[in-house]
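discrete fold record:
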Amino acid sequence: MGTEPTFQPFEYMDIENDKIIGFDIELIEAIAAESGIKVEVQSLGFDALIPALQSGTIDIVASGMTIDEDRKLQVDFTAPYINSGLALAVVKSNETIASEADLKGARVAVQIGTTGAMKANELKGKGIVKSVKTYDTIDVLMAELTKGTVDAVINDLPVTQAFIKSGHSEIKIVGEPMNSEQYGFAVAKENTELLKKLDEGLQKVLESGKYAELLEKYDLPENARP
């Protein structure tokens, strides 16, 4: 299983134990237990996950990956396991940007290969956003926001919420969620046997109460349930 472990609370490093943990990790492990699969976790850059899946380097992507039409041409997705969306974040002192409508001329930071990047580039193409700066990991793009290198960040809502809760009160979310999205686990095209096992395992985890336990453990709202 491949994941990009800077996406708290879904996948991130437990520094004390040098281990990747998070909602996605525990969920896929619970699904694997229900499906008779053994899971080994590998850390990869987000933009490397789909190529690694296509080449057979990994068998599953579990990395807060939004199900969208472009990706569905490249991989097959399980049923959704999280309702998400995109959030617009700025530094707390910023009183100029209060919503997407205020991004005219703004410099926006995003993580490479994400739907946040797609949204920012869409706004740039419309002549709204001035520039889009792309970074590999969430912590780096948030640091650039704090430094003032960029004016705003477009990123997944629950991840931005978790980042702020982890001690970054200098950042705030403004406006309404920009997109409605759902995450899914991805497998290589035509890997129908594995896809079926994951879907069946996910359904069992949803029904068993384990899923609800994980939502509570990682402080995700009940409406995140698909």
